[in-house]
Amino acid sequence: MTSRGAGTAFSRKNYRLSTEPEKSKVTGIVNSRLLNDYLHRIFTNADGNQPAAAYRKHLTFQNLQEHLDRLLAEENGSEDGQDQVVEGRLGPSVVVLDHTSGFEGLLLVDDDLLGVIGHSNFGSIRATTCVYKGKWIYEVLISSQGLMQIGWCTLNCRFNQEEGVGDTPDSYAYDGNRVRKWNVTTTNYGKSWAAGDIVSCLIDLDEGTIAFCLNGISLGTAFDNITRGAGMAYFPAISLSFKESVAFNFGSRPLRYPLVEGYHPLQDPPVADLVKARKLLGYLKNVIHIGIDVTEGKLVEKDTSMWQLQGEPTVLITLAHIFNYFSPLMCKVYLVEDVLMTFLLSILERGGAVEAHPLIQQLLDLMWLLMEEYEVHECLKQLLMSLLRAYRFSPIIPDLGLQIHYLRLTIAVLKHEKSRKYLLSNVLFDVLRSVVFFYIKSPLRVEEAGLQELIPTTWWPNRFTKEGKESKEVKEESAEERLRRRAYERGCQRLKKRIEVVEGLQVQILKLLLNNKDRGGGEASRYIFLNKFRKFLQENASNRGNLTVLCPPEYMVCFLHRLIATLRFFWDGHKAKTPAALSSEEAYVPPQLFYNGKVDYFDLQRLGGLLSHLKKTLKDDLAAKANVLIDPAELQAVTMDDLDEDEESATSAAQSQRPSATLAIGGALARPGWLSSPTLGRANRFLSTAAVSLMNPRRPLGTLEKIKVRTLSVEQRTEEDIEGSHGNEGLLLGRPPEEPDQPITENSLLEVLDGIVMMYNLSVHQQLGKMVGVSDDVNEYAMALKDTEEKISRCPKRRRDIHEELLKSQKVFSEKLNHLSRRLAWINVTIYSKEKMQDIYWLLRVCIRTIEHGDRTGSLFAFMPEFYLSVAMNSYSALKNYFSPVNSMEELPGYEETLMRLAAILAKHFADSRIVGTDIRDSLMQALASYVCYPHSLRAVERIPEEQRISMMKNLLAPYEQRPWAQTNWILVRLWRGCGFGYRYTRLPHLLKTKPEDASLPSLQKPCPSTLLQRHMADLLRSDRDLAPSFLNSVLNQLNWAFSEFIGMIQEIQQAAERLERNFVDSRQLKVCATCFDLSVSLLRVLEMTVTLAPEIFLDWNRPSSELLLRRLAQVSSFSRVRVTAERNLFDRVVNLRLPGLESVDHYPILVAVTGILVRLLVDTDVQG
Fold first, then answer.
1. Does the pLDDT at position 575 exceed 90?
2. Is the bond preceding residue 885 a cis peptide, omega within 30 degrees?
3. Contacts made by residues 56-61, CB under 8 angstroms, sequence distance 24+
4. Contact, 67 vs 57, CB < 8 A?
5. 688-703: b or e for each residue (b if 16 or more CB lie within 10 Å)?
6. 3-state secondary structure of 765
7. Cα separations in angstroms, 564 against 328, 561, 756, 947
8. Where is the B30.2/SPRY domain (predicted)?
């Protein structure tokens, strides 16, 4: 047996035996008598008994192999019958999904032919093996909780895109999404399933019944008297809708819930190999347990937990014999999961920290020493796959014990340096979806998760009125309600402590992966992780429309928080060693990362447009400010032909290096990435596209040396390329003069930080908004319960029938609220806790500092990716809207200053000429519009430097033509609302009696005018004689257009309403009509604002434009007034129709706006006269 890997090396002379006791004391090689006793103690018979010394064969290393062969052959008679066909089953012994003929629709099937994802409306697929007699079982691992029908079908069943398993005769299915069973007709059955559940499908062909279990709990018999007889055989089958995914276990792995008596998996377990592996494991345990005292010449029992090899030749040779048989078995997935993983988990069951169990590290050392390299690679891969699957599909119990158990073993394996580096390089991101390790799934069924015991008392806030608005009256809590709330909060704290244990273990895993001190035997783990992490981000950024490849957003949220915790741990650790560096509280991404090409941003949009365009137009600025020269070869490779060629070559290279996955239409296309297998698909088409990359060569730099930039793929980067050395600044190459010459932190951590910001932009923000829905449901049910209780109190005693129905409703609402409040507790702890809020707040501050530093670089600011601005805006929105009322943003440290700095960014960059993207400019404008709607954020705008405020107002007063003016006008209106004539309302007076909209909408906030910004506006209009006429003429032009469009539309609406044959109006037309009306009103309010703040623009005849502006203003005011106030006119008739969608169209809003203009003109004319 050749020794490979790290460990103590032994030459052949070490294997020579000696019978000289004194020599054994020196070398550790034992005499033949002691060796014989030792080998007999290690290799016991099957019954565990040893024959008497006089009758047992003398054992040496020369005859040990023969003895071992005989022991392994004992009680292994089942091996001969293993390949025989079991009665009642037809088909291959290895059961997989039939991807050649047994499917309907478009389905993506995993490489192992066990995982499947729907890629069409309702695709169906069956297995390759059927059963016609006996009792059989298989398991389905649910990866998504959507529409699926799982069960059995016969060969005669014909499916299509509308009908699947259970929709035809002789097919039977369970649907946990709709909680029903299907066999042509459908009835209620079972429980709802969730992602992470396991469904067991059982068929008893002797009794003619089909049943299902969910996570090992029987759901009862679903069907009886199923069709049996000649020609009737049943295949496992599934039908699933688009992007739903599952994985099957027919018996290739140990069944998770096999405790159903008399039922057999469709695929036979490898019984002979199992017996052999368990025997060999027993021998291995004996080696660990029994030691040799060479000095005393006897065998001793050892503490197994602290066992070490310590270079003993006798023990090593004994282990080599065991591993000679054990190693090939450990390449088989069933044996790894059933034997090896079970043994390793048992080591950790003794409790204590993972570090207290060095035996696992010793065993991994043995594996690398005594197994062939390909064997240990396959064994580690299968072990991590089994751990990941076990973690993902473990049921949630109150103490999260199962999840903790599997995470502890994962940590123990990853603590082994050589194993960790192999897994990082080849498995964790390439074969596994290791992000699953950082996810804590939310329980859909709180009863099974044990939340009733953990949170016995439920509570929900009662601060909402019937309309859903937050109540203005602060009602005192009753004593009973206070006790309930406190009991609920104590339960939430108990839950939080248990979840924090899991989160701590997940952070430990990331700390191991980000270790940069383990340089023994190659590159440190952190730099391997960085390259894999960047490819993971690229995959999710480049496939935004391909849902099968994207990492689910719920996983991203958990991964983001664990990564932030780990990053800040290493960042502050570096600060402790290097006092001159920045702390994590001051973290930011320096601007040179965006243009020096050291970090690949794939095809993500930059603030200044496409990267190829920026490289051409700003190459002189790069050379002058950052000493960076663009390689001419890069500038030439920007045509579409070059792009296509690069894509095709990258795709062909990827396909040649990876096995193609199976697409169940007969072709060989990419398999999906996020199956429950859980394995990863091939590299996506956009991987390593050189045309949008700016990667650099790495070499030492002179003080003012120009750096020539060229493409370098992520895989080619080394530690020196990232951290730099000998004058090479690594990622910080090309520092602009505006950037302080101060150490920030380790360069590698800067790239991790950049990746965290990108992750938030990709899907985290979307998921944070989605999970708020549970809190909304609690509020709705709480209002319904409160309303029902009020009705019960008012119900007359003689109406018992009504009283009973109300009591039933009260019970339903109470049960639902009990369920939702416990589920909300889980979500608040895992997603909306104070610690998670602080993470998002920290990320917001990182983005603000990064934008501020980038802004100082002048034209080079255009290289910054758009997502930094997006994350700054979205993270603030999340803090304001998603985390309250659980946690308040006002309590965060430095909240006022952060609000002001973000306000300064919005005020400066919404009209920044360096930003060319239409979408990001619109987002900035909308964020600023929302900012001025709320008193807190508006005051932050007022606190920014005066120069920036004046610049912002000047940009807002630019002519409306050729730019999105509606948002600008909305901002000006919000600054005025509360000061105009009859303009102090929150909702229009004629709408007060109707059902209110969402009270959190910016448009429904109380008026909060800004007299400071109004004063700036007045000063600008007075002082700049060109600004006022150009701005006002553009406003008047848009008002003419908007009101004319509105009048034209209400004419069409009136005509359509009067036609007898078609008495309805298109809802889209109504919406456009209402929008034109609202625009007209807001434009009139801006004119009123201008007339009030700077009347001399219209009334000072020394101004050349005053007369024209006054005439136009009078015309448009008169036109609007006449159209609206004429008796029984068109406007009246449309308003009286009360059409849905035209609620805001009324006389009041437009007449008070016109009146406000006329009154101000009259007052100011009189004053001036």
1. yes
2. yes
3. 58/32, 59/35, 60/17, 60/32, 60/35, 60/36, 61/15, 61/17, 61/35, 61/317, 61/321
4. yes
5. bbbbbbbbbebeebee
6. helix
7. 41, 5, 7, 36
8. 73-255
Average pLDDT over residues 180-199: 91
| Residue whose structure tokens are 């079991």 | 86
Predicted local confidence at residue 1079, as pLDDT: 92
Closest to 292 measured CA to CA, from 474, 92, 25, 481: 25
Whole-angstrom distance, CA of residue 731 vs CA of residue 750: 8
Which candidate, 849, 905, 837, 871, places its Cα nearest to that of 758?
871
Enter the DSSP assignment of 514: T
Q: Summarize pLDDT for 9-61 with one digit per residue, the tens.
A: 333 333 333 344 444 443 455 678 888 888 888 888 755 555 555 456 788 88
Between CA 258 and CA 235 the distance in angstroms is: 19
Q: Count H helices, E strands: the chain?
A: 38, 22
Q: What's the CA gap between 589 and 754, in Å, rounded?
A: 7
Name 649's Cβ contacts closer than 8 Å, sequence gap at least 6. none
pLDDT band (50, 70, 90) for residue 665: very low
Give the pLDDT band (50/70/90) at residue 646: very low
- Pick from 1081, 928, 1079: nearest CA to 1013: 928
Structural domain boundaries in the chain: 32-46+59-73+271-427, 94-265, 451-588+750-831, 962-1168
Helices (H), 590-677: 611-617, 619-626, 632-636, 640-657
Confidence of residue 683 (pLDDT cuts 50, 70, 90): very low
Q: Pairing mode, if any, of strands 628-630 and 707-709? A: parallel
Long-range contacts of 1060-1065 (CB under 8 A, 24+ apart): 1065/1139
Query: Residue written as tokens 């709705």?
Result: 780
Which two tokens mark 42?
Answer: 């290690």
Rounded to whole angstroms, how far apart are CA atoms 588 and 570? 15
Show Cβ contacts of residue 431 under 8 Å, excluding neighbours closer than 6 positions: 381, 385, 679, 680
Count CB-CB contacts under 10 A for residue 721: 21
DSSP string, 1013-1073: HHHHHHHHHHH-TTHHHHHHHHHHHHHHHHHHHHHHHHHHHHHHHH-SS-----HHHHHHH
Digit-coded pLDDT (tens) for 202-212? 999 989 999 99
CA distances from 444 to 120, 196, 856 (A): 27, 10, 49
* Whole-number CA gyration radius for the chain: 36
Q: Rounded CA gap, 301 and 286, in Å?
A: 9
- In the DSSP assignment, the letter for residue 125 is E
Provide the phi-psi class of 50: left if phi over 0, else alpha when psi is between -120 and 50, else beta: beta
Q: Which numeric CATH code is attached to 94-265?
A: 2.60.120.920
Q: Quick check: 1135 and 990 in contact, CB under 8 A?
A: no
- The model's pLDDT over 1068-1108, given as tens digits with 9 standing for 90+, comes to 888 888 899 899 999 999 999 999 998 888 888 888 888 88
What is the reported pLDDT for 50? 59
Distance CA 433, CA 674 (A): 7
Check: pTM over 0.70? Answer yes or no.
Answer: yes
> Residue 1015 pLDDT more than 70?
yes
- In terms of C-beta density within 10 A (0-12 exposed, 13-18 middle, 19 or more buried), how is residue 973 classed? buried
Per-residue pLDDT tens over the stretch 420-473: 999 998 888 887 788 889 998 888 777 767 788 888 888 887 654 433 344 444
List, for residues 954-983, the tens digit of each pLDDT value. Answer: 999 988 877 778 888 889 999 988 888 888
For CA atoms 619, 625, 626, 629, give the dihedral sign.
positive
Nearest to 224 by CA among 183, 259, 257, 265: 183
Q: Which phi and psi (to 5°) does residue 485 adopt?
A: -65, -45
Residue 210's contacts (CB-CB under 8 Å, 6 or more residues apart) are: 151, 152, 172, 201, 202, 203, 204, 221, 222, 223, 224, 226
